[in-house]
Specification:
By secondary structure, the chain is an alpha/beta fold. It is about 40% helix and about 15% strand. It has helices at about 10-20, 40-45, 65-75, 95-105, 105-115, 135-140, 185-190, 200-215, 220-225, 235-245, 255-270, and strands at about 25-30, 50-60, 80-85, 120-125, 145, 160, 165-170. A seven-stranded mixed beta sheet has the order 3-2-1-4-7-6-5, with helices on both faces. α8 packs across α10 and α10 (about 235-245) packs across α11.
Length: about 280
């Protein structure tokens, strides 16, 4: 299966981000903790190279805790500030506030020397689709969030959201999408749901996931579906179809439905905490 994904509005979104970068102090970049490398857009590094950077490993509760630690160390070695977060439960939000202040310490100190006190840090949130950007903003801002006036960007239709007395967030509609040449990156994005299932061959995707789980998380499929893992991926998918009662007319196995079951179980965490890529393999 060929995964390719480079929407036409990418140029417009990139241009918007170039304009917005001038208005902010720090970029908060959300990545999926299950695929921290594949869920990043390399353009953000280029556009934001003069800004403080905070990486959020979002959906950390769905990822393997061992690799959350390794990915945290991997990003820290490259100079990023890193926080593990589950936006849905607010786990990690308290540490994020401290991390933003730490990332912008030089800016805050510079303001203080100039006699500027209590000016909020201005942040931008970046992230590819389905990484949890909207949920994160809503959780971080809370119901008390409010638009603020008299700020650069307001006249251009952008919105400043006051998170608290220390942080303002520039909320922009533009989302950057990655262009990838490595098909493995596309496959991982598809597995986590960042590419719409309607344009995918879900059976082929399920077979790839089965192969990965057998190699890296042995026993997972047996525990969930009661199937032996010494068979070929297709045979295992057939066993999953039987276990879940995925049948077509004539009692034939419905492998497409079984594939959807498997992918849903992975994405929701029902297969356990699983990470699809590891720091040592990142470029």
């Amino acid at each position: 299966m060929n995964y390719q994904w480079y929407p036409g509005h990418m140029t417009k979104a990139k241009r918007m981000m170039q304009e917005d970068i001038k208005l902010i102090d720090v970029i908060i970049e959300l990545v999926d903790a299950r695929i921290p490398f594949s869920s990043r857009n390399p353009d953000i590094d280029e556009l934001g190279k003069q800004k403080s950077r905070v990486i959020i490993l979002n959906k950390a509760d769905l990822a393997d805790g061992r690799y959350n630690e390794k990915w945290t160390a991997w990003f820290q070695e490259k100079g990023y500030f890193v926080v593990n977060i589950d936006s849905r439960t607010k786990s990690g939000m308290a540490s994020l506030q401290k991390m933003i202040q730490e990332a912008c310490r030089e800016k805050i100190e510079r303001d203080r020397r100039r006699g500027i006190k209590n000016r909020p840090v201005r942040a931008m949130v970046a992230g590819i689709p389905n990484v949890g950007k909207s949920t994160f903003i809503n959780t971080f801002a809370g119901k008390a969030s409010a638009k603020t006036g008299n700020r650069p960007g307001v006249t251009k239709g952008k919105q400043w959201i006051r998170m608290n007395k220390e942080v303002e967030l520039l909320d922009t509609p533009g989302i950057l999408w990655p262009k990838f040449d490595d098909q493995a990156v596309g496959m991982r994005l598809a597995m986590t749901g960042s590419i719409r299932d309607e344009i995918l061959n879900t059976e082929e995707l399920a077979l790839e996931l089965i192969q990965f789980l057998i190699h890296h998380y042995p026993g997972t499929l047996n525990a969930r579906y009661g199937c032996e893992e010494d068979a070929a991926p297709l045979q295992i998918l057939e066993k999953i179809a039987e276990a879940r009662g995925c049948l077509q007319k004539g009692r034939e196995l419905d492998l497409a439905k079984a594939s959807a079951f498997l992918l849903d179980d992975f994405r929701s965490g029902k297969l356990g905490r699983i990470t699809l890529e590891f720091p040592e393999a990142a470029i």
